C-alpha cells in the first residue's frame, strides 16, 4: 500500500453514505429493501473515486439516475426470460458503446448492468419496482449530499494535477543538469490541461491559485531544454555549463516550491540560495548567445509562476471581461450532443469500442443463459463478473479477470467464515458490509484484486441481511466468477481486437502530428509577421496526443499473446526514439521563436515546404513498410546552410530534426534490426 494514495476521510464519507441508506431502510423497511438500496449508495460512491474532472456531486447524481432507470426497466422485464434477455442485450450494447465517451462513462454504464442483473432477483411488484428504483436513486442522492455538506479538500484533484505537472517539470530540470537529452513525459501536462477545463459554474468558484501556473509550465519546458542542449544552449563543458546547471537546479527548486504551494493552498517559500542563483551575477551574464536569451526568459517565467501562485487562495469571480478566459468544459446538458457524436463515430466494425460493445453483449447473454441453467443459484454472478472485468483492450481484461477471481475467492472465504462462525443478525451483517465498503474505498488504488476481495465479502454480508445461505453463496460465487472470467477470455480468443497490427498506423499518426508541429514552428521562422502562437500551440497538443496514443498502444501490444505483424520490437523502439527526438528538436526551435518584427527566413520557409511535401509519402511508407525518402528536405537544408551557415538557431534545429528523421528511416528500413542499407550523410 502506498500511504500517499490513501484517502481515509473520503473513504469514511463514502462508507457513511452506504451506512445511512442501509441503516434507514433496514430500520424503516425490510431487509430486501436494505439490500436493494445499498447498491445505489455503493455504486454512486464508487463513481466519485474515479479520475474525472467534473464535480463529485454531479458524478453521484448521474450514477443515481442511471441506476434507478436500469433497475426499474429490469424489474419490468424480469418476469419474462426472453424479454429480460433482450433488454439486457440492448442495455449492454449501449453500455459498451459508452466507453466512446470516456472511461468514467464506461464505468458508470457498467455499474448499471451489474445493478440490473442483481436487484431484479429480489422479488417485488410493479409498485415495489418503483420503490426499489427510487431507493437506489436515493443512495446516489445521499452520497451527493454528503459531498456537499462535508467537503474534503475542495478542488483537490485539480490541485494535484497542476502540482504534478509542475513537479514533473522540476524533475525534468534536475535531470537535464546531468543528461541534456533527458526525455520528458508530457502526460502530467496533458492531465493539468484537462483539469483546467471548467464549466461556467466551476469558473466562478475556482481558486485563483489554479488560474495561471499551468500556462507558465507549458512555456517553461522548451526553455529548460534549450538551456541544457549543448547545440542550441550552453556548451558541453566550461563555466557556461556550470552556470546552466546552477540555473536548472534553481528552476527545479522553484517549481517544486510552487507545486507544494498549489497542492496545499499555501504561500510559496524559497530559500535565499535559490533566489541568489536566479539573480544576474555582479560580474555580468556568464551565458552567451541563445543560452543567455533562454536564461533571461527562464528567470522571467519562474517569477511569473511564483507571482501567479502567491495570489490569495480564495474563491472569487473573474474580473469583468475575463469570464471566458479558461478552457471550456461543457455542462452535463451540453455534453449530450457531444456524447451522441462520439457514439456515432465509434459505431463501426473497425472501432475497438464498437467491437468491445458487441463482444461484451454476447458474453453477458451467454453468461446469463448459463448462469440461469446451472443449479447453483445466484446465476447473475457469471454475467456480472464478465461485464465488470471486460474492457476494450485485452491487457486490462486479462489482468482484471485474474485479479477478480483471486480477490473473489479470498473475499467469499473470509466473509463466509465469519458468517459461519458468528451467525450474525441483519444489523451485524449490515455493519460488516459497511466495513467492507470502507476498506474497498480506502484500498481501491492498491489493486483490483484487493477491491474485488472487499466487494465479494460485502456481497456475502449484504445477502446475509436478507437471510441468504452462506455456504451456497460461497460455492456459487466462486464457481460463477470463474465461469464469467473464462467467458471473457474466450470472447477475446474468438473475437479479438488486437493492438499489435495497428502499431504502424500509430507510428504514422505520430509522425504526421510531429510534422505539423515542426511545420508550424518553421513557418513562424519563415514569416515572423504572420506567425500564429495558437497554431503552434494546437500542433503541439496534437503531437502530444499522438505520442500518448502510441505509448498506450505499445503498452497494450506488449500484453497481447500475438506476434508482431510488420514491426519488430527492435524497430518499434528505434522508431519511438527517433520520433521523440524529432519532437524535442522542434521544441528547441520553439523556445527561440522570433518576434513579429524580425526578418523573414527564406531558407526556413523553403525547408518547411520541402518537409510538407515529403511527409504524406513518409507516413504512407511507415504504414506500408516502405522506404522513407527525405531527399527533398535534405536538399532544402543544404541550400539553407549554404546561404546562412550553421550559426542560426533555426538552421541548427532543422539539422537536428532531419537527423531524427534519418534515424527513423534507418530504424524502420527493411532488414534485420532495421538497419538502413542506404548510405547516410557523413
Automatic annotation (TrEMBL):
Broad class of where this protein is predominantly found: membrane
Domain (Integral membrane bound transporter): residue spans on this chain: 368-490
Compartments, as annotated in UniProt: Cell membrane
Bilayer-spanning residue ranges: 20-46, 58-76, 82-101, 108-127, 133-152, 357-381, 401-420, 427-444, 450-466, 478-495
Residue ranges constituting the Integral membrane protein YccS N-terminal domain according to the UniProt record: 67-174
Mode of membrane association: Multi-pass membrane protein
Family: Belongs to the YccS/YhfK family.
Protein name: Integral membrane protein YccS N-terminal domain-containing protein
Species classification: Bacteria, Bacillati, Actinomycetota, Actinomycetes, Kitasatosporales
